[in-house]
Amino acid sequence: MMETINILYIGRHLEILATVVRLINANENWNGVGVMNDEEAKDIFLKKDFSLVLLGSGIQEESETNLCAFFNKQNPNISIVQHYGGGSGLLKSEILLALENNKN
């Protein structure tokens, strides 16, 4: 039995957020959680053990910088990936690559 991998997706567009979370959850070993704002992202990050954070499009640079600093401070081993779309194949590849890099 493989362990469940928790993935946090932060996005600014509700439809895209819903789609990305659905695609993440289509993999039986992945548990996707999607949030739309930074405070919610920080709150949930502290409550759950995430292996990966995906940053969606539309996040301002300042916001992204603050979020990355926060996540890295809480968990120096966290993988943070910018996901700007490109279909489910790309999403899966990005996640698998980030998880693989996390192991090394």
From TrEMBL:
Q: What highest taxon heads this organism's lineage?
A: Bacteria
Q: What is the protein name stated in its UniProt record?
A: Uncharacterized protein
Q: Which organism is it from?
A: Flavobacterium rhamnosiphilum
Q: What lineage does UniProt assign to this protein's organism?
A: Bacteria, Pseudomonadati, Bacteroidota, Flavobacteriia, Flavobacteriales
